[in-house]
């Protein structure tokens, strides 16, 4: 019998309300979570390794000192989980953004001392990720070449603007799209070519809007000097996780935009019910547009290129 390909889950949340002052996603129910819940879920669904990241909305504290302390505690908690289960977990470090100086220091500690596997950021902290505000951090991330997972968070909306619906229902997809457009139009990959940016949820609406985004210079003259020379190629420099993705509706568009070597498996545990996670997983791995080799890339090979410590751990099994 052929050995099955391992599965690496790059979109897997650790819920740490005691360290973040609670989690508020509007009307979304916050599920209970523990690291042992994650292990049980992974065993049930055949996931070999999960990369832990903080849930939206991230660290909510406006006070920089409090945010720095929270980020340090979160990252030390992540490191402890990885040390407890070194062959099952990796972790994306949390930064105390929008505090750039504090984030640069925490980045050095998280990657250099705690040896975490990458960085997790939210779509916006006021300024959107990818705008020039973040250039000092992007420069540091470029030098580390560590993967950066970008997760949406609720935009600033009035009650009338959100229609009384949770932002995660549809606004999250637009948040991810806003980041992708900022990165493309601010020449982030051109200026920081070692960046490895992962967009959540198949890039939000990016695959659907990709062609439309190429029309900018034709529609708005002032964009002629700012728009990417090749917008489609620029969007193809992202990695895309497939958390909460339906094969029938989303994968054809994503498959048309990027090759399978840019796609990563993600579950969105614990927010998605296990039955829905399994259905979405089957949608991806059984998608007719993917060959067996493509599925192996999406399941783990692409992620393992970004996560060398995890690759070494799997090789020890």
TrEMBL record:
Species for this entry: Aliidongia dinghuensis
GO biological process, any: secondary metabolic process
Keyword annotations: Lyase
Any one Pfam family match given in the protein's UniProt record, by short name: Amidohydro_2
Protein name: Amidohydrolase
An example Gene Ontology molecular-function term: hydrolase activity
GO annotation, cellular component aspect: cytoplasm
Entry superkingdom: Bacteria
Residue ranges of domain Amidohydrolase-related in the record: 8-308
Keyword Transcription regulation among record annotations: no
PANTHER family in the cross-refs: 2-AMINO-3-CARBOXYLMUCONATE-6-SEMIALDEHYDE DECARBOXYLASE, ISO-OROTATE DECARBOXYLASE (EUROFUNG)
